[in-house]
Amino acid sequence: MSEELAEGLVAGGATRPAGFLADGVFCGIKEHDPAGEKRDVGCLVSELHATVAGVFTENKVKAAPVLVDQERMQLGVTCGIVYCSGNANACTGNQGLANAREMTALLANQVGVAADEILVCSTGVIGKQLPMDIVRDGISRLAPARERHLEAAVAMLTTDEWPKEAAAEFEANGHTYAVGGMAKGAAMIHPNMATMLAYLTTDAPVARSFLQTTLKRAVDDSFHMISVDGDTSTNDTVLALANGAVGGPEINGGAAGEALETALRAVAVHLAKEIVRNAEGATKMFGVEVRGAASVAAARLVGRSVASSSLVKTAFLGSDPNWGRIMCAAGYSGVDFDPDKASLWLEDMLLFQNGTPTDFDEDAASTLLDRKQSLFILDLADGNATATAWGCDLTTEYVIFNSDYRT
Amino acid sequence: MSEELAEGLVAGGATRPAGFLADGVFCGIKEHDPAGEKRDVGCLVSELHATVAGVFTENKVKAAPVLVDQERMQLGVTCGIVYCSGNANACTGNQGLANAREMTALLANQVGVAADEILVCSTGVIGKQLPMDIVRDGISRLAPARERHLEAAVAMLTTDEWPKEAAAEFEANGHTYAVGGMAKGAAMIHPNMATMLAYLTTDAPVARSFLQTTLKRAVDDSFHMISVDGDTSTNDTVLALANGAVGGPEINGGAAGEALETALRAVAVHLAKEIVRNAEGATKMFGVEVRGAASVAAARLVGRSVASSSLVKTAFLGSDPNWGRIMCAAGYSGVDFDPDKASLWLEDMLLFQNGTPTDFDEDAASTLLDRKQSLFILDLADGNATATAWGCDLTTEYVIFNSDYRT
After folding, report:
1. What ipTM describes this predicted complex?
2. How far is A283 from chain B (nearest CA, A)?
3. Would the CB atoms of B191 and A311 count as touching at under 8 Å?
4. What does pLDDT average to over chain A?
């Protein structure tokens, strides 16, 4: 877990903003652990109706909770999220849809709202029906409270080693607002648990369409810029809830909108980097800062292609400054650029200049790559746009974990 | 190596068709092996001017030999190919282009043709200049002969465990023609050796544009349907040479064209499957037969997405009938289909039917997956098009080999 706060962050998680409560308990979807540290059912509740925005998986095979949430996003407001981990409720047909809806009805009943005012998420194994008897019991034992954000963050984990929380503050219209969040990663120690989930909260009042726009931009710079293994899950979901508990005029762009977006991005980027740092089997992480791209979209594509390459990831594991693999992955990203103008650095060490190899010190470069975090900078010399992607090493542990038989 | 001939194949390799000669020697680009089994410079020569067609990497970072060949394809005819393994001659700037051209001039001089009548390929580490002193010596020692096809097939290998050759025959216009070929795989035991190269030959006379069309179709069904790790190399090249040595009217479609294409596809599919079977670290392979797709392009996309998924490949390593990962990979392929209509089989065992899990026997399925080759059949129920992709398991050996430091 992070020992100090990253720049721009404050302590706390999804309940740092006023009016948000949370909890997480163990019901038995996951195998019992004698230490009693596991949780597999959780909730995040807003005391006020919250404006809601969402970004969902683009996989054509969408889990039942994703389908239910996408339908309910049309309401534009929500009172909270109920979720479980250990079972994805994906590829489960009509029974899966009924089970997802029942989960929302159970939490809605407890907090005194309508079922369609609750959203739902699941993460875990694909193709198994939820064990609703124990899920019902688990939901009945949820006692949402502001101080139980860590329990809630633990309840969304699958094979992550630690819970992922972050919070930030911003000033706007004479008020101090908070943004909070929790996430679980694409840490696939057990099969079919590739899902990335994140819930972001704020106590600022935010116009619905602006919340959706600003969430999309923050996700594009954070969760969309990380890669663990290139598999896009059936369940990926990022939800943003703005309950306006602190009051003030509705934020809908301008300076207040920018302040909100800066805080939301800081929380989202931190959670995204935590997911990479804790990726299954990973021992260290690297950034790929793409400069001089013709567009931000091009910079993102190139960065993601490099961060996703199995050959780059294995070379990074071996601290091998094997930059040819980076140029190769940039070349198949789908972005058009002139390799003869491109240059590549590891930190401030020039590896490749205007299309030609340099005589860099390979031992010094290898030593740089031994650290917990490294940065490659790739200048395409094709424009002014930049973007940064993050990846991790591909290890034998990844392979072993993911080939273990499920039962 | 294959012990018996696959259906539709005959014995031999790239020199099975009349008028083709080949050779391969060791010059020292690769580290010396005391057993004297390595070869790293080779050639394939046609005694007659051959019509030529080519399919090249779509990577924007193209190796010097790819750039030289693409230029020379405009001639439409060639007298042969000179190649080396152990060095990709990629990301090497103008010096790399000069070196690639010099390789062709050296072989051209030996066989008495013009330099631009020779094509060139390289495969190996990216970003190092070719050691031209030893390459010159190696080329000078090439003595192309019909019976030296195996030496030539060995000289194109990098980390492949065995040479890959195939041949087939077809009847057309009252003649018996042969098709032959050799390939090297994406077996990346050492870094930066992801390149796939294949040379296909025939002694039939073939119209240039028809040769290009039929090669493209054969490649789409073979080399484009295999995946080892999703990394598209800077050097990938497939060349087809038709020298007309057997005589007869020029083939330009019709029944003769179909006969040629059937033979060419049989050779290409066999070589492609050999590449997967010999993929670095792989212990077994699987096919993904996509049925009921709206188009062949859609079927190919879905098949390739499944065959490339790290999660599918690791589950396959563990003989885990974890079909949710297959549906997930199909879902993010970019192809639109209705998961509620889709069904999935392992051989004749139904795993998923019209969007709902079946109660299949997991132990029996796991036993099926223990074999050297398995077939998944995915019916999208969205049309009549089909395609088959091939993949292999992702093993810890893959990770270890690819993280080894280069020097």
Report:
1. 0.79
2. 13
3. yes
4. 91
